[in-house]
Design goal:
- With 72 residues, the chain is of the alpha+beta class.
- It has one domain.
- The chain contains two helices and three strands; from the N terminus they run H-E-E-H-E.
- Strands 2-1-3 form a three-stranded antiparallel β-sheet, covered by helices on one side.
- Strand 1 and strand 2 form a beta hairpin.
- 8% of the residues are buried.
- The model has no long low-confidence stretch (mean pLDDT 90).
Length: 72
């Protein structure tokens, strides 16, 4: 019983720590050529990359956007 509770607490702690780390870093949206498109938090960049990828797919544009960690 205690092992199950400890495993659940471990997963919750891991999720909170990972979320905090992702939220405090700076990320950038980069196209397939390496050109930076947007710099911001992980959630902003993830949303921006998805929006741009959907736009490119809709209009058959040969480009792809990814999220990468921005190093100062």
């Amino acid at each position: 019983m205690w092992t199950v509770i400890l495993i659940i607490i471990g997963f919750l702690a891991f999720g909170l720590i990972r979320g905090t780390i992702l939220n405090n870093r700076t990320y950038k949206v980069v196209n397939k050529n390496g050109t930076t498109f947007h710099i911001g938090t992980y959630l902003e960049c993830k949303s921006m990359a998805k929006t741009q990828n959907d736009y490119c797919e809709t209009f058959s544009i040969d480009d792809h956007f990814t999220v990468k960690q921005h190093k100062l």
